[in-house]
Amino acid sequence: MSDAVLPLVGPLVTLRAPGAADLDPLVAILDEPEVSLWWVGYTPQRVQAEFIDAPDVTRIIEVEGQTAGAMFVLRGEDPEYPTTVMHLFIGTAFRGRRVGEEALALAIRSEFAEGVTRVTLDPNVNNAGAIRSYERLGFRRIGVLRDYQVRPGGALEDAMFLDLTRSDFPDGPPLPPRD
To answer: Of 58, 57, 56, 29, whose CA–CA distance to 42 is shortest?
Structure first.
């Protein structure tokens, strides 16, 4: 994926490349207690380096012209293992509208169209809301990744390994219903 890729547009969500104007909204979202619980240690400099300066792997999740969150789309390079790993966060003001599900569905459809056969996620096992959302979209629990994430203070926590394959949804998962 590169910054030359056209935005992906759904009924509510647009996925697009990052721009300089996204820095402050992303920093504010990553500072929200419900987001920073899972996305730890993001300073403006880190957001700049990992999100804004990485248009090949970053997609901004936009809702009604506002930066609602971001997504990493990390495609493997080995053609024998056509897998993409995704990570995303959504600001609390945008929760409850299935924004993350629509963003994932759009990104997965694009990845499947480009030959990827499997998408994986690895949320913290204690992030029950995210796991429920991913399972609603069709992701399946594969297992627990033990001692996966170093938390503040050095404690290790597990992650839930989830996947969704093109054989589950040949054209990609359906978009969440909109009223």
So the answer is: 29
H or E stretch including 13? strand 13-16
Q: Which two structure tokens, joined as six digits, stand for 53?
A: 């300066």
Taking only the tens place, the pLDDT of each residue in 137-148 is: 999 999 999 999
pLDDT band at 178 (very low <50, low <70, confident <90, very high): confident
The two beta strands, 156-165 and 13-16, are: unpaired
In the three-class reduction of DSSP (H, G, I as helix; E, B as strand; rest coil), residue 53 is classed as: coil
Distance CA 168, CA 179 (A): 25
The pTM of the full predicted model, rounded to 2 decimals, is 0.92
Q: How much of the chain, in percent, has pLDDT values that exceed 70? A: 97
pLDDT attached to residue 6: 82
Say which residues have a Cβ less than 8 Å from residue 132's Cβ, sequence separation at least 6. Answer: none
Edge-to-edge, what's the strand order for the sheet holding 58-63?
8-9, 13-16, 58-63, 66-75, 83-90, 118-121, 156-165, 140-150
Residue reference for tokens 């380096």: 49
Backbone angles phi, psi at 52, to 5 degrees: -65, -45
Q: Are 114 and 136 in contact (CB under 8 A)?
A: no
